[in-house]
Amino acid sequence: MNMKIKDSIAWAAFGAVMAIIMFPSCSDENEAGILEITNNEIILQAEGAPVQVEVKSNTEWRIDFAESTWFSTDIRGAQSSRTYFTVTYDENISDSERFCDIRVFTKDGKTSDVIKIKQLSRYPFIVPASDNMELFTKGGEYNMDISTNVPETDIVITPTVEWVKEYRISDGKLYFNTETNSQSPRTGSIVLSYDDQYQRKATTTINLSQAYSEYANAELVSYPTVYGYPVGGITNNVYIEGTIVATGTSKNFPNNRYVIQNETGETVVFESESLITFAQFAKVSLCLKDGTIKEESEGSFTYRLISGITAAHVISSELSTFTIPEKTIAELTDNMVFSLVTLKDVEIASPVGAFTNFKTTDPGAADRKANKNYWVEKFPAYYRYYPTCIRDKNGSNTYMLTSLDAPYAHETLPKGSGTITGIVAKVKLTNFDISESRLCILPLHREDINIGDMNEITSVLVEWDCNVPDWKEIGASTFTEYHPTGGEASQSNAILNKDGNKHFQQTYADYILGFQDDFRGDMNLNTTDGYYGRMRGGAFNSRPWSTSSYFYVDKISTVGISTSLSLQVEMNSSWGGGPVAVVEYAYSMSGEWVKVDNSEFTILGQFDRTAAGGQTEKNIPGYKVYDFKLPDALLNRDNICIRLRPVRLPSGVSSFMPLRLANISIKYNK
Asked: How far is Cα 578 from Cα 389, in angstroms, rounded to an integer?
């Protein structure tokens, strides 16, 4: 063989060997990494410890997922020697499952897989309104509120006794019927259960106790028959039928006091030692035997109630559809006392402050400062109800009664219009000069006051809130004109003043209007300095007064207004008592003044913190709101003037005292 050829072959072989040595095979480098995912679907409990997710690979690997607020991992990547990552998650307190996809891939990106994460919703629950339920003797339908986060149709209902029938759950309530108990008291239960696909179980038991009443054979009588029974014990085995309209649970009505009302609006009031559980508007048969008729009174108004009623007196109870009668204020009659009605098309006459605007304490002695209810505890009879003046679109007015025990007592009054449902009541509130002849409305719950912020009855033409412009800064400064703080922009030049007033300043004096505290049940509720429920500088104080003195408003235009006008004022006087005053109108301050019909009112002396003579049943622990219909003669006028003028001193008041004005407004119907 030619030596050159031999050399070439030798060199070629040598080159091949060197290539193998110097450049190893690329097959390992180009080969895709291996991933092995043990479980591609991970189910997390609603709450639990972190979970390890297994990943096996022959190379370095990574994970990626969308950012999440409830889910995180301890790493985003690892060497092949790491065979898992850890998932940490927040508790799922919702009733929806949560999901997250985690992409696992090799570092070179050539191999990937997806792990689907599912977190279960919160643990299933079934919670009844009560674990125990007392049932009446006669058979009938019962219901109980059920709170649950599972489908109602998937809940298994299992009664443990045969006398429970026709059970179902619908719209958040468990319904069932019972047979009449004709032998002796008996017990049973209803078990509610649910199992989901993840072996989670929810179970609850409602224990039932059905009474046996000796009154089951009572004779049905009419309400007028009951009215004819004498005071004392009832010996006749009789019962009445009707709808429970007051269930004994309202904080705005005496505890354990109930009202049963029939279809014609007749009522019977009864009470018990311990609470009898009635559903609102339950139709019941109520035995009266062994109850006691007693009389109570509000001034000259005497009424009857039956005490000593127990659950055993309830022969039967079932759900009913009760239509609450709708009335205007003028349609209320004495026959409706204690019945439930809805007053339609009403508004708060002067929606300033809260549902209760009492003077309950003061910034005097230390013990009064520290106790927000100092005067309430000392004179509880003066604080039974706060009467909020309400009016309807027809111009009639009355009072809505609110107890300090009502949960909404310190809630700010709504400024709109709507309806108020409540018990028609007669009360004698001497401190507010409200007699028992006045028919008022007593709501049982906040939701019965269906008034929001939209007013479809009236618009405020002009208003003065009488608040000091800035208590901290007014100091010794003065001003001479007080323009409206509310109402329509067209009335911005209107003025409020008093005859002979020189100017306005912080402290009142003769012929100088100064500022006085107002009582606002929605203000300063966390203070312990005696200003609880009080607004510093929220009213005007003034002197001197006589039958030729007056507060007045001027430069008000009613051009273009053709609907009814009304006036609202909030006033009181120094503790010695105020005068009887009237509302008068004219078209200029120099013009002829005309008295507004039915406008005579008494300005009440404020409850005093030191003078015993100012702490009587005639002293008002706050201010009183008065509402007046204004004559149509004031409509469509370029200028109208209104004044509040004393005309005489009432019995028991010997001289003219300083008078205070906390708010004044004029409205017109829409």
From this structure: 20
Residues 479, 460: contact at Cβ < 8 Å? Answer: no
Burial of 308 (C-beta count, 10 Å sphere; 0-12/13-18/19+) = middle
Show the tokens assigned to 369.
């400062």
Cα(154)–Cα(195) distance, integer angstroms:
8
Q: From CA 472, how far away is CA 82, in angstroms rounded? A: 70
**How confident is the model over 483-493, as pLDDT tens digits?**
999 999 999 99
Spatial separation of the C-alpha atoms in residues 102 and 65, rounded to whole Å? 5
Each residue's pLDDT tens digit, 215-272? 878 999 999 999 999 999 999 999 999 999 999 989 999 989 999 999 999 999 999 9
CB-based burial, 447-473: b 16+ in 10 Å, e otherwise: ebbbbeeebebbebbbbbbbbbeeeee
Pick from 607, 596, 575: nearest CA to 645: 596
Strand pairing of 140-148 and 164-170?
A: unpaired
Distance (Å, whole) CA 360 – CA 377: 9
CB-based contact 436:427 (threshold 8 Å): yes
At a CB cut-off of 8 Å and minimum separation 6, what does 335 contact?
265
CA angle 33, 37, 43 (to 5 degrees): 150
* DSSP states of 47-97: S---EEEEEEESS-EEEE----SSEEES-SEE-TT--EEEEEE----SSS-
Q: How far apart, in whole angstroms, are the C-alpha atoms of residue 345 and residue 197?
A: 53
The one-character DSSP state at 392 is E
Report d(CA 368, CA 609) in Å as an integer. Answer: 9
Give the dihedral sign, CA 242/247/250/254: positive
| Tokens standing for residue 172 | 């958040």
Q: How far apart are the first and last CA of the chain?
A: 125
How many beta carbons lie within 10 A of that of residue 52, not counting itself?
12
pTM above 0.85, yes or no: no
The Cα 214–Cα 212 span in angstroms is: 7
Is 171 buried (19+), middle (13-18) or exposed (0-12) by CB count in 10 A? Answer: exposed
- Among 551, 253, 230, which residue's Cα sits nearest to residue 384? 253
